[in-house]
Amino acid sequence: MGQVAIVTGASRGLGFAIAEKFNRAGAQLIMTGLNKERGKAAAARLDKAVFVQADHGSAADWDRVVETATSRFGRIDTLVANAGITHGTPTAEMSLEEFRSLNRVNLKGCFLGLKACVAAMRLHGQGGSIVLMSSIVGKIGIPGLIHYSAAKGGLRLMAKAAALELGPEKIRVNSLHPGMIRTDMTAPFPEAQMAARIPLRKFGEPDDVANAALFLASSRAQFVTGTELVIDGGWLVQ
Amino acid sequence: MSRKLEGRTIIVTGATKGIGQATCVTLAKEGARIVATGRDAGGGRATHHLVERAGGSCIFVTHDVRHEDEWENVFAQAEKQFGAPVGLVNNAGTFFVKPIAETTEADFDSIYEINVEGTFLGVKHAFRSFAKFRTKGAIVNVSSLMGQVGFPNAIAYCATKGAITAMTKTAAVEGAAMSPKVRVNSLHPGVIWTPMITSTFGDDKALSDAFAADTPLKMIGLPEYMADAICFLISDDAAYVTGAELTADGGRGAD
């Protein structure tokens, strides 16, 4: 995979697992995140990887990320828009500010990133691949997560609209829908209890999602666009 | 034959034209007391007139769905005039077509605030009202066919309608746990001949014929068809239906 990839939210969890997987496959990497120390330490563990501190809800920060990628590595082939935040509140008690601050990063941030990366991909005209990190919450409901539902359902359709618009330029856009994966984000959920609802009877590993992201980003998925890849141990099929 | 919505207070947003206006008339014919809301007072008067002409009762409340204090006012007016609402039709929305490269951050923010935050605030305040008055309520969120399948040059609109589709699922599971139970469903119109479409693509017969020809049922979508679908979802006919996506598109999505 002799490519240049941007992975957002890459200093830990799913993002780091994806960055590591891409790196092993030969990709040069821009890793982004909010926490500079954690991000630099994460990039130092990989080869040909540069960390850029970024607020993903900021268009100016996205410009800086894309500029760094093109000045350091000459081009952009892949974007994995993984960065996201979550916390639960019942709908009736959620403030507009809480709803908006999550969607600024999780929904608008992905649009800004996609737009900036598409402009860079058009410079070389050789297509590209964009993976938007949705969730099973983009397809089913979970109490307390209406803001997260908005973001993840929004990304699901953003990927399809972009896939249609960008298909003629061979820029592929897909959404990934992880279920319960062992990360800091899912640490509060009781696995022993919840696994009973998952056909494969366990939470997934970040590596399971990284494998899926690598497939979608690689040329092996050259005929795959606008689709939804669900990595959930079978949760959604019941 | 008894009417399905006799004496029930139902709030309809974006009720000054198009699907919202037609919905007010259809629900009123089934006996609902209509709280029509929207930004355009002239359109509100027209809706008020149409509902009364159909034998129904209606108030119009000026309402920008982006503003939380205005949502509080809509519920307060509804309670005062007709009694606690049992239904909300989150219909208000906006639309534009632009390629990704031309869609500015301000474009994205403006469509997101109306379509996504406006819908969220409606669900939030309906849940609060239903809990306060112990109402067996129902909510219909008007998404779109474009909240189920993609459309080129509509990344922002598709994102907002995908958001509504998914928010409806979480609202449905939260509502199912309330006492009494609250149902929440989404409606997915295809191309419906309303000012939203005609102001974007043009208002002429050749165009509506072209849309009809491109639809498996070879019909142009009318706001009244959407009103009938909303009437089903908001009424007790849909007592076992929650978290569902009702597509009413003449078959476009299946084609």
Question: What's the arrangement of secondary structure elements?
Answer:
The complex is a heterodimer of chains A (238) and B (255).
Chain A: E1 4-7, H1 13-24, E2 28-33, H2 36-44, E3 49-53, H3 59-73, E4 78-81, H4 96-124, E5 128-133, H5 146-166, E6 171-178, H6 191-194, H7 206-217, E7 228-231
Parallel strand pairs in A: 1-2, 1-4, 2-3, 4-5, 5-6, 6-7
Helix pairs in contact in A: 1-7, 3-4, 4-5
Chain B: E1 9-12, H1 18-29, E2 33-38, H2 41-53, E3 57-62, H3 68-82, E4 87-90, H4 105-133, E5 138-142, H5 155-176, E6 183-189, H6 195-201, H7 205-213, H8 223-234, E7 245-248
Parallel strand pairs in B: 1-2, 1-4, 2-3, 4-5, 5-6, 6-7
Helix pairs in contact in B: 1-8, 3-4, 4-5
Mean pLDDT of chain A: 96
Q: What's the level 1 CATH class of chain A?
A: Alpha Beta
Question: How is the CATH topology of chain B named?
Answer: Rossmann fold
Helical proportion of chain A, percent range = 40-55%
- The assigned CATH architecture of chain A is 3-Layer(aba) Sandwich
Number of self-contained structural domains of chain B: 1
* Most strands sheet of chain B: 7 strands, parallel
The biggest sheet of chain A amounts to: 7 strands, parallel
Instruction: Return the structural class of chain B.
Output: alpha/beta
Number of domains of chain A: 1
* Cα shape of chain A: globular
Number of helices in the DSSP assignment of chain B: 8
* H/E element sequence of chain A: EHEHEHEHEHEHHE
Contiguous runs where pLDDT drops below 50 for at least 5 residues of chain A? none
Question: Architecture of chain B, according to CATH?
Answer: 3-Layer(aba) Sandwich
How many beta-strand runs of chain A?
7
Tell me the span between the first and last alpha carbons of chain B. Answer: 38 Å
Q: Which radius of gyration of chain B do the C-alpha atoms yield?
A: 17 Å
Give the low-pLDDT segments of chain B: none
In short:
The complex is a heterodimer of chains A (238) and B (255). Chain A has helices spanning 13-24, 36-44, 59-73, 96-124, 146-166, 191-194, 206-217, and strands at residues 4-7, 28-33, 49-53, 78-81, 128-133, 171-178, 228-231. By secondary structure, chain A is of the alpha/beta class.
